[in-house]
Amino acid sequence: MAANNNPTVTGRRLGTELRRLRKDSGLTGTQVAARLLISQAKVSHMETGRRPVSPRDVRDLCRLYGVADRNVVDRLTALAKESSRPNWWRAYGDIPHSVYLDLEAAASSIREFGPMVIPSLLQTPAYAASVIGETIPLLSVDQAAAQLKVRLRRQYRIYDPARRLHLQVVLDESALRRVVGSREIMREQLEHLHALSTEPHIIVQVLPHSAGAHPGLSGHFSVLEFPDSREAVVYVKRFTSGLCLDKPSDVQQYSATHAHLRARALTPEHSRHLITDAIKVCRS
C-alpha cells in the first residue's frame, strides 16, 4: 500500500465524522456526488481519509447535510486544516513508513511485536545507526543520517510526561542474540533496553527460542490505540512500506495474536533476567 494513499489519523477522524453526518442526513454517496457536482470516488476518499478535505469541502458538505451547529462546522474545518499541515518529519525528505509515523505521533498506546531487532523507539543512537546502515541497501550517507535523526526524535514521546506513550512490546529472543553493529554497541543497547523495561509505562517481554513456532513468525506488527477514540489500527511493517489495517476483524485478529504472544512470552521480570544474560554474553 503506497504511503500517499494511506489515511492520516486526522484525516481518518474527519472522514469518520463526515460519513456519520452523511448517513444521518439520509443521503447516499452517489446523491452527494450528484448534488455537489463531484465524483463519487471523491466522496468516498474524503470519508476514508484518503483524499485531503479542504475547509470549503467541509462547508459544502455541512450545508448539504443540514448541519446547523456552528461549533460542529468550526471543529470539522479545524480538522481539515490540521490534516493538510505537513508533519515535522517531512523536513527530512522521503522517510520510509511515513504513514506509521503519523499513526505513532497520534497514538496513546502501542502493542508491538518485534521478531528480528529491538523496536525503533527503544533503540540507542549507535544501534539505530547500525540497523539503518546495515539493512537498507543503496542508502546514501545523507539519507541514513536523516533517517537516524527522525528515529531518535520519535523517541521523545516515551519521555514526554504530557503525552507519554505507553508501550507493550514482545520481542523474539533473536532480537537479543543478534549482534548488530558490534558487541559493544549491542551491550549498550541491551543495557538501555533493560533500563527502559523498568519504566511503568513500558512493558517488555521476551519470547524465548524454547517457545517454538508461534503466530509472530509472520513478521513485525503494531496495534495502535488513540486518545478519545474507540478505533484501533494495525500496522504491518514491510521492507520500504507497510500495510495499514483498520477493519474491526483485522484489529481483533492482531490484538488476539499479540495477547497470545504475551501469554507465551516470559514475564517482564524473567525477560529482564534473559536480557541480563544476553548482556553478559556481549561482555565476554
Molecular structure report:
The protein has 284 residues and is an alpha/beta fold. It folds into two domains: 3-83, 434 Repressor (Amino-terminal Domain), CATH 1.10.260; 97-121 and 156-283, Endonuclease, Chain A (2-Layer Sandwich). 51% of the residues lie in helices and 12% in strands. It has helices spanning 9-25, 29-36, 40-48, 55-65, 70-83, 98-106, 125-135, 141-154, 174-177, 183-196, 248-264, 268-283, and strands at residues 109-114, 166-172, 202-207, 221-225, 232-237, 242-245. α1 (9-25) packs parallel to α4, α2 (29-36) packs across α3 and α4 runs antiparallel to α5. The longest helix has 17 residues, at 9-25.
Quick rundown:
This protein has twelve helices and six strands. It has helices at residues 9-25, 29-36, 40-48, 55-65, 70-83, 98-106, 125-135, 141-154, 174-177, 183-196, 248-264, 268-283; strands at 109-114, 166-172, 202-207, 221-225, 232-237, 242-245.
Task: Show the helix and strand layout.
Layout: H1 9-25, H2 29-36, H3 40-48, H4 55-65, H5 70-83, H6 98-106, E1 109-114, H7 125-135, H8 141-154, E2 166-172, H9 174-177, H10 183-196, E3 202-207, E4 221-225, E5 232-237, E6 242-245, H11 248-264, H12 268-283
Parallel strand pairs: 1-2, 2-3
Antiparallel strand pairs: 1-4, 4-5, 5-6
Helix pairs in contact: 1-3, 1-4, 1-5, 2-3, 4-5, 7-8, 10-12
**How many distinct folded domains?**
2
Rounded mean pLDDT score: 90
Put simply, the count of helices is: 12
Strand content is 5-15%
Look at the helices and sheets and give the structural class: alpha/beta
The dominant shape is elongated
> Class of the largest domain, according to the CATH hierarchy?
Alpha Beta
Number of strands: 6
CATH fold node name of the largest domain = Endonuclease, Chain A
- Strand order within the widest beta sheet: 3-2-1-4-5-6
List the uncertain runs.
1-6
Order of helices and strands: HHHHHHEHHEHHEEEEHH
